[in-house]
Every structure is written in structure tokens, then in C-alpha cells.
Amino acid sequence: MPTFCAPDGTLLAYRTDGDGDPLVCIPGGPADSAYLGDLGGLSAHRRLIIPDLRGTGRSATPEDPSSYRCDRLVEDVEALRAHLGLARMDLLAHSAGTNIAVRYAARHPERVGRLALVGPSSRAVGLEITGETRRACARLREGEPWFPAAYAALVALTEGRGGDAEAIAPFFHGRWDAAAREHHEAARPGNEEAVARFGAEGAFDPEGTRAALAAFRQPVLLLTGEFDLNSPPPMVREFTGLFPDAAFTVQPGAGHHPWTDDPDRFTTAVRAFLSSPSRNTRQ
Question: Residue of 46, 57, 65, 160 with fewest CB within 10 Å of its CB?
Fold first, then answer.
């Protein structure tokens, strides 16, 4: 597995999959990037370059734990770009990784070609997701046999009454079957300190980031699943409005990992975006 050196000397690993033009893919979590797989077959069309964030997968644990903070991870992405010798790169990011990608685009706009945000997190831009928004998204699954217990847990969590976070796992997948359970385990973060410090004080600058994104002229895709209560469509639509040239797409029947729910639909949408001319779309 190839490696590169972060600015603070931490040795970071990445993997490549496929051929064609490079697409750097930032995982969420922070979790082992293996859960991204080949992004539903996207590697048949682009050369995926997928780093393991520091302290995850095959990347080293940093000496300074504060370097797990989101804004510090931005420079790991820049170090990867320099290591690859790319003057500009297309970026795809998922979930918590979209915070890193958005902060990267704000800090290094000249280094980004196209930016695809899948199941985006809103922390970097300060958009609130209310409990009712999440519950409304969850109620789309009322016909599922697991719904009553999972919804009760969600209500408790969103109302601040505690609750079992694991009980709401089915809501993150378009279908809750054996494959989804296996993928859920693979996507589970294994470094609790990295998760805890990711959003530490100073990690985000919503006002400054939003101002930078308003001046970001490269094409952006924001794609979420119809059932994704982590990234509900109403929030993602609002997020789309922060960019001058952005496309908003909701994948029907998908949860928080749309490439596993309908790989063909996912890869078709991402491929079309990556190969399309610049546009300014609101759907």
C-alpha cells in the first residue's frame, strides 16, 4: 500500500483502484476507508485514490492527538495532492469526510477541479438539522418490520432523552439485510479518539467557510439518499445554495451509503457530473 508523509511527519497510507483520470476520495468516520470499496463500480471509470485518514486503516497514529481535528486534516489532503503531483484534482467525499473536503475547497480553491459531496455533513458550514427533519425522513420507512423499535430510539435520541444509537442503524441503509449489516460493521469507526477530536474547538469556521464557498467557482455535486436521515434532502438542498455552481441530487430508495443501495444509479449520477460542462442547477 503506497504511503506519503503528512506535514507533521505522520506516515499516511492510501490505495488506488481502477484506471483513468484520478479521483481523490475522502472517507467519513473517521473510519477505515475500506468501507468505500470501489464506490459501486466507479473504479471502472476513474482511478480512485482513497486515503486512510490519520489513525485509521493503515495510516500511522499521530504523535499529536489534536491533529485529528478536521481543519488539521485539510493539510493531509494537500500533502496527498502534492505527493501525487497533481496541479488540480477532482475530489469526492462522504459523510464526515465532506467537512474536510469543503474546508479544503475553501482553503485551496485553485487546487480543486470538481467537488462531489455524498451524504454530506453540514458541520463545516453550520447548517442545523432539526430532530423533526430527521424524524420526518425516518417516517418514510414506516412499512419496514424493524421500524417501531428503530423509530422509538430515534425519537429518544433527537429529543435528548438518551436512547440506543445502534438501534437506528437500519435507517442508514436503503434496505436492512445481511449485506447492509456487514457494511454497517465495516463503516464503524475504530479510533474513538480520532472521532472525539475531529470536531474539537476550532475544527470548524462556518462563517468563514460559507464566505469562501460563495466565491468557489468550480462545479459541485451534492448527492444524498432519499432515506438518509444523517444528510436529509432538505438540508442538502440548502447546502447546495451555498455554492455558485452546484447540482443537487436525491437518489431514490437510498440511505447514507447510496453506492451500496443502487450502484448503477449512483455511478451514473457521479459519472455524469464528473464529465459534464459547468452548470448551475437547482432541482
Answer: 160
Query: Which helix (H) or strand (E) segment is 247 a member of?
Result: strand 246-251
pLDDT digits (tens, 9 = 90+) for 196-234: 999 999 999 999 999 999 999 999 999 999 999 999 999
Alpha-carbon Rg for the chain, nearest whole angstrom, is 18
pTM higher than 0.90: yes
Task: Judge contact between 119 and 249, C-beta under 8 A.
Answer: no
Contact 26, 93 (CB under 8 A): yes
Domain 3-126+192-275: homologous superfamily in CATH = Alpha/Beta hydrolase fold, catalytic domain (3.40.50.1820)
Write out pLDDT tens, residues 122-157: 999 999 999 999 999 999 999 999 999 999 999 999
79-83: long-range contacts, CB 8 A cutoff, minimum separation 24: 79/4, 79/5, 79/6, 79/7, 79/12, 80/4, 80/12, 80/14, 80/24, 80/49, 80/51, 81/24, 81/111, 83/4, 83/5
Domain boundaries, the chain: 3-126+192-275
Beta-carbon contacts of 74 under 8 Å, excluding residues fewer than 6 positions away, are 100, 103, 104, 107, 108
Q: Is the peptide bond before 233 cis (omega within 30 degrees of 0)?
A: no
